């Protein structure tokens, strides 16, 4: 890459996050005009692209699976802040907001990010391969977390309705955090090799690990460049969530005018917040690093539950009103189908485009039934 191209790339990637913060500050207090909302939407897209760029720089410096882990945790921490912020605004629908947003994030990651990654990777490379042992453990953790926090509350009897009693919520929060920390230890310390991109033969069978130091890409950035990108990544993510919060009243009013269920608001917010991870996952799939894409997808699903539920449990100490976590019957059926299909997808460690298409159909089903339950 030529020097002017490098300077241009660095220039936009630095300017856009700063511009996003400036727009966020000005729009936070006054955003009732359509022109302001249009600028917010345009800058939001730029902040998403900036977050993807800086996440890739940091990932190149620290290596996998730490790179995908940084992006997943950063996005989820900001997502938690957004959920708590919207719940404190009050209203009749806030009791289900955490459930709807977390469930939307799970369905988008397990079907949307995974489906797109498998489709893009398989269409470009024929067959794509990954480590079934590492990916299988990630899927098992996601299933346990989703069942514990989103399914069981529908069937418990200590509290009225699909919600946990205070003691049950405390137990679910501690168990979720414990599961997430245990997986992080496995992914980053105990069995890190199970989560690295793999090489494969012409039949898609895994033959070894990708040598990321000799993959034809540029040398890793310096510590200073990586530190700057980490700071700009956090700025970009804060801007994405803040700008999404600015747009949320417009989204809510639009959903209400169209006659859609309030759960659609959580779906739209989850789509916006997960956009950086989605783009990063698809880019890695195009490079035949599907393992990294799956790390992002399942890591995001885990973080969305394993960090959000404990944070919401703590927040309920001062938040008034009920916290409905239990899924509706239609949502439970969609989750069960997704779990079953996901198991069949990861069991062999190699897939072709059909599996990706199946996941995308499940995502489309979730989106459609969110609008027309």
TrEMBL record:
GO MF annotation: an example: sodium:proton antiporter activity
Compartment(s): Membrane
Keyword tRNA-binding recorded: no
Domain Sodium/calcium exchanger membrane region positions: 34-188, 229-371
Keywords recorded for this protein, A-Z: Membrane, Transmembrane, Transmembrane helix
Gene Ontology CC annotation, any one: plasma membrane
Matches recorded under Pfam families: Na_Ca_ex
Principal cellular location given in the protein's record: membrane
Protein name: Ionic transporter y4hA
């Amino acid at each position: 890459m030529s020097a002017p191209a490098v300077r241009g790339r660095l220039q936009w990637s630095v300017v856009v996050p700063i511009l996003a913060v400036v727009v966020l500050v000005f729009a936070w207090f006054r955003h009732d005009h359509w022109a302001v909302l249009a600028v917010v939407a345009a800058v939001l897209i730029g902040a998403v692209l900036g977050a993807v760029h800086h996440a890739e720089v940091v990932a190149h410096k620290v290596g996998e699976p730490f790179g995908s882990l940084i992006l997943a945790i950063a996005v989820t921490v900001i997502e938690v802040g957004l959920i708590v912020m919207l719940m404190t605004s009050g209203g009749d629908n806030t009791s289900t907001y955490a459930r709807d947003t977390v469930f939307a994030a799970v369905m988008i990651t397990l079907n949307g990010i995974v489906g797109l990654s498998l489709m893009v990777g398989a269409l470009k490379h024929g067959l794509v391969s990954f480590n079934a042992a590492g990916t299988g453990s990630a899927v098992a953790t996601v299933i346990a977390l989703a069942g514990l926090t989103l399914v069981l509350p529908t069937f418990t009897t200590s509290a009225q309705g699909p919600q946990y009693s205070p003691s049950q919520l405390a137990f679910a929060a501690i168990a979720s955090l414990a599961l997430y920390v245990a997986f992080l230890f496995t992914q980053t310390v105990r069995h890190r090799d199970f989560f690295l991109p793999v090489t494969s033969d012409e039949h898609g069978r895994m033959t070894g690990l990708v040598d990321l130091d000799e993959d034809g890409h540029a040398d890793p950035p310096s510590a200073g460049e990586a530190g700057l990108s980490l700071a700009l990544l956090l700025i970009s993510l804060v801007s994405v969530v803040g700008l999404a919060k600015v747009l949320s009243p417009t989204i809510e009013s639009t959903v209400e005018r169209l006659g859609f269920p309030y759960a659609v608001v959580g779906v739209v917010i989850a789509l916006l917040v997960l956009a950086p991870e989605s783009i990063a996952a698809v880019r890695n799939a195009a490079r035949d690093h599907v393992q990294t894409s799956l790390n992002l997808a399942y890591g995001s699903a885990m973080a969305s539950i394993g960090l959000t539920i404990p944070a919401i449990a703590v927040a309920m100490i001062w938040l008034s009103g009920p916290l409905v976590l239990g899924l509706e019957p239609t949502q439970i059926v969609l989750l069960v189908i997704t779990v079953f299909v996901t198991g069949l997808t990861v069991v062999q460690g190699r897939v072709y485009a059909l599996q990706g298409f199946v996941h995308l159909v499940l995502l489309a089903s979730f989106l459609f039934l969110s609008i027309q339950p």
